[in-house]
């Protein structure tokens, strides 16, 4: 009888210990990246990060591939994904539609935009671009569209009125600039470095440059347990160097080399991006520009 009582007591203590464990101890999180298409690419580009994050956080990470930013919002709305790595402009829509929570910023060096012309161009000021054709990158992109348009606005040029905006992929835009089919390109620093290397015999000049931009960030669904959100944030705070090293082992994530993670972030940090939306004529933030 005594042994039976001891057994029952041991079982009860075991249950008590299990119930006292943090809610996230057995949890997994479903993770997506808006600019990576397909599971194979997601595993290749973020596999090392997944392994390092799981080790540091004790949370299991399941990749959830999406075909783009719209699919990511729909997946979060349907409860299929918990955390998404996305861009500043995309965050504005995630927050407006789903009350998504900013968790941690992925800062990268030299994340700013420029208006670029050929060095031989006679154009010497932004105002001289009036009446010209200017190319941007992906429509709705923070660094390839919204920020360059803001640089032009600050220079006195109204979007879509004082110049003609066109949207070309970087290599196509560079070729068009070399042929003088367009007068300038709005781009980020990574793209400027890319075309400089691609055309070593031609020189490019920065006509106007913006301030450092709000960075990419991980957002959480409003449905995720706040304790889990805090665990994710704490993992980046306590293991940031190891996570950054893991992320940048793949060449696709080279843009984050020399960067860092910022785990103190609020929605107000992205008010500047909302002003960029307004600058291109968009006053409702629930839809992606160009969709």
Automatic annotation (TrEMBL):
The keyword Signal applies. It comes from the Bacteria. This is Phosphonate-binding protein. It holds the Pfam family Phosphonate-bd. PANTHER family: ALIPHATIC SULFONATES-BINDING PROTEIN-RELATED, SOLUTE-BINDING PROTEIN FAMILY 3_N-TERMINAL DOMAIN-CONTAINING PROTEIN. The keyword Signal applies. Transmembrane segments: none annotated. Coiled coil: none annotated. Residues 1-25 form the signal peptide. Keywords: Signal.
């Amino acid at each position: 009888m005594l042994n039976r009582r001891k057994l029952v007591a041991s079982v009860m203590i075991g249950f008590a210990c299990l119930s006292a464990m943090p809610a996230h101890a057995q949890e997994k999180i479903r993770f997506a990246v808006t600019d990576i298409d397909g599971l194979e690419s997601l595993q290749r580009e973020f596999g090392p990060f997944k392994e390092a994050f799981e080790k540091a956080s004790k949370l299991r990470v399941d990749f959830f591939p999406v075909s783009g930013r719209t699919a990511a919002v729909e997946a979060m709305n349907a409860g299929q994904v918990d955390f998404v790595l996305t861009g500043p402009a995309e965050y504005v829509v995630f927050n407006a539609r789903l009350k998504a929570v900013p968790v941690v910023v992925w800062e990268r060096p030299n994340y700013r935009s420029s208006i670029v012309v050929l060095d031989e161009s006679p154009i010497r000021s932004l105002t001289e671009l009036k009446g010209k054709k200017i190319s941007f990158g992906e429509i709705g992109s923070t660094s390839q569209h919204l920020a360059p348009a803001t640089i032009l606005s600050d220079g006195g040029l109204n979007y879509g009125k004082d110049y003609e905006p066109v949207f070309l992929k970087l290599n196509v835009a560079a070729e068009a600039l070399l042929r003088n089919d367009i007068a300038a390109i709005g781009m980020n620093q990574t793209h400027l470095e890319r075309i400089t290397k691609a055309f070593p015999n031609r020189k490019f000049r920065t006509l106007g440059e913006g301030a450092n931009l709000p960075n990419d960030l991980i957002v959480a669904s409003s449905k995720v347990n706040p304790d889990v959100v805090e665990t994710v944030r704490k993992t980046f705070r306590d293991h940031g160097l190891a996570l950054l090293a893991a992320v940048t082992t793949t060449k696709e994530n080279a843009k984050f080399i020399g960067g860092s993670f910022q785990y103190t972030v609020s929605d107000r940090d992205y008010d500047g991006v909302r002003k960029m939306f307004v600058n291109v004529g968009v006053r409702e933030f629930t839809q992606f520009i160009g969709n």
